[in-house]
Amino acid sequence: MEKSAKVDMLHGPLLKKMILFALPLALGSILQQLFNMVDSAVVGQFASSEALAAVGANASVVNLFINFFVGISVGSSALIANYIGGGHDDRISKGVHTSISIALICGLFLAVFVQFVAEPLLLLMGTPENIIGLAVLYLRIYAIGMPFILLYNFASAILRSAGNSKTPFIALVIGGVVNACLNLVLVIVFHLSVDGVAIATVVSNVLSSIVVINCLMHEEGMLCFDFHQLSISKNELVKILQIGVPAGLQGTVFSLSNVVIQSSLNSFGSSVIAGSSAAVNFEYIGFAIVNGFSQAATTFVGQNYGAKEYKRCRKVWKLALTTGIGIAFVMDVLIVLLRVPFVHFFTSDMKVIPYAAQRVLQVMSLHWLIGTYEITGSALRGYGKSIAPALLTVFGTCVVRLVWVYFVNNFFHTYTMLLLVYPVSWAITGALVIGYYFLVRKKVEVI
Description:
Elements: H1 15-46, H2 49-57, H3 59-86, H4 89-124, H5 132-143, H6 146-161, H7 166-189, H8 194-217, H9 234-266, H10 270-306, H11 310-337, H12 339-344, H13 353-364, H14 370-382, H15 387-411, H16 415-419, H17 421-445
């Protein structure tokens, strides 16, 4: 890999470097989501509204299974970044091979496990009878690609810890283009439905993982990955889990709360499910911006904290927070203003369009609030503090949502009232995590 692909996080001005690091991550996620939108658009336009609803009914379920392990990959990134900043070359290789081993073991487990629980879980969620068969088929095929999804995430976390966010971006572009093209071919030409878009997704995940693994295999120095050296170092495993498990549990519980919300959405019928499914795609785009700067915060703080550059750690948080939220706000406003033509991209069903447009307006108007807790929590993980921000996020985004669904929404059982749970939970969580950041930052920096 060329040296120019890496960002020096320990010296010189920060803003330009953080933008150069974060934007490939954000753009890669946006492109991936745009390609994923083709999944929804193709089945919505060329298959049926039921197929669109079936794909949408799986979004929260897929995240429920994957987010825990993606959270653990955050532990890998923070640990290796800290090793790099502290000059601990002897530990870096152990961290790399332990991380990839975790990805392979957990990915294979998920691929098998989901085959058995797909139908019972979707039935438990109250998935309507007219889409349950399609939803189960999509989830079972999608699960086959989970080992490659985790390989991509862990390998990308390793590359980002060294300042390389460009290669993961390139891998997403390659996988995304293939995904989009296969969607069109399998659904339009071969007349497949949700099985077609699921197969396309699996193939794209395989390709993306190959690109990043190949890059790691050609790395110089201690970051170089070798399949023959696959092993789990107990010391590195413990450190990765100390940071990653709280982040993973946060993602899992967060996804669980969304499963509950999806169950409530299911009670409104397939038209609402399809409309909500179309609108969620735009939320992923907004989140991509925040996520790019969140990962930048973890990596930049991790390296500078390892080097004991505490003033730079503080500056990283401020720049990541203001820049990430600012860009996300502009993106969210554009989506809200253009919501009607955007929704038509997914469906021409007049029963579905109003529900999609309503969700975009209600949710995207304040979607930038997620940056307050996502970026701040990620900065805290760079310090090695993962448990407290995870617990605060679980309370703010999960407990609050469950209370809302089971009490407020049961009393005012409307689509509008259900959607209000999102901005309310974001505002509460942001206040809690930022408050904690100011309470512990001075203590962390003198340790």
